[in-house]
Design a protein that fits this description.
By secondary structure, the protein is mainly α. It has a single domain, classed as UbiA prenyltransferase (Tetracycline Repressor, domain 2, Orthogonal Bundle). The protein has twelve helices and no strands. Helix 1 runs parallel beside helix 4.
Length: about 260
């Protein structure tokens, strides 16, 4: 959003910002509740996720999912025509992920795809047209998410095998899946560099990327220990820091330009 609005000090205005923020909240809520509904019985049998059912009933989850999806589509109507027309496609993509583990080992890549549509959507909301920078950033997000979800999925590999679910970790085994995650995160770093070049970002952006590979190395080093408690901690710490750092760097870059 901020890069797309670069010609206006990186800020598209409070109205559009509010609409984009609402779309993010409604889409994520719809996706998360759909995931709960799709995996309702499976989650009950998984020790890591069994407690999720204490938060809401299945009927409430369905109501929340449907209302959030409707609100998402309705909100895009007030942004622009292309966002409104593509809103059902976006919902289809984010809902599809919850079903993929039943028929493909590439489930982690579908999760990456589900999150990767967000930078494209933000760009369309501001400009109303496609361009290469958000597509390149989307590729980076896909690789980032697929990689870290492979690390996260090591916690559920035995449960997934017992339930007959598919994932890259189930298919390749933990060591090979972790190596693949490392390669994906290397591709993510390359995508962030190409994104900066294609969006004509400056030195603040590129200097701000320096900590990213070290945060990823920390995450992968912990993952190789196969200590599930540490993996969970490293997963949230490193990826939250990368996301936060990326936002701060983009904001600083836009401020510096003006």
């Amino acid at each position: 959003m901020m890069v797309a609005a670069g010609s206006t000090h990186g800020w598209p205005g409070w109205k559009l910002f509010g609409l984009i923020l609402l779309c993010m909240v409604f889409a994520r809520t719809a996706a998360m509740t759909f995931n709960r509904i799709a995996d309702w019985e499976i989650d009950k049998r998984n020790p890591r996720t069994a407690g999720r059912h204490l938060l809401l009933s299945k009927s409430l989850a369905i109501a929340v999912c449907l209302s959030s999806a409707a609100l998402f589509i309705g909100t895009t109507f007030f942004i622009n025509r292309i966002c409104f027309l593509l809103s059902p496609v976006a919902l289809g993509i984010i809902f599809l992920y919850s079903l993929t583990k039943r028929f493909t080992h590439a489930a982690q890549f579908f999760l990456g795809l589900a999150l990767s549509v967000s930078p494209v959507g933000a760009w369309l909301a501001v400009t109303g047209s496609f361009a290469w920078p958000p597509i390149i950033l989307a590729a980076g997000v896909l690789c980032w998410v697929a990689g870290f979800d492979m690390i996260y999925a090591t916690q559920d590999v035995e449960t997934d095998r017992r339930e007959g679910l598919r994932s890259m970790v189930v298919w390749l085994g933990v060591p090979c899946a972790l190596r693949l995650a490392g390669w994906l995160h290397l591709l993510m770093l390359m995508s962030l560099i190409v994104f900066g070049l294609s969006a004509h970002l400056g030195k603040i952006y590129f200097l701000g990327l320096i900590p990213v590979p070290f945060l990823l190395l920390y995450e992968h080093r912990i993952a190789r220990t196969l200590d599930l408690g540490k993996i969970n901690k490293a997963f949230f710490e490193s990826n939250a820091m990368i996301g936060f750092l990326f936002v701060v760097v983009i904001i600083a870059e836009q401020i510096w330009k003006f």
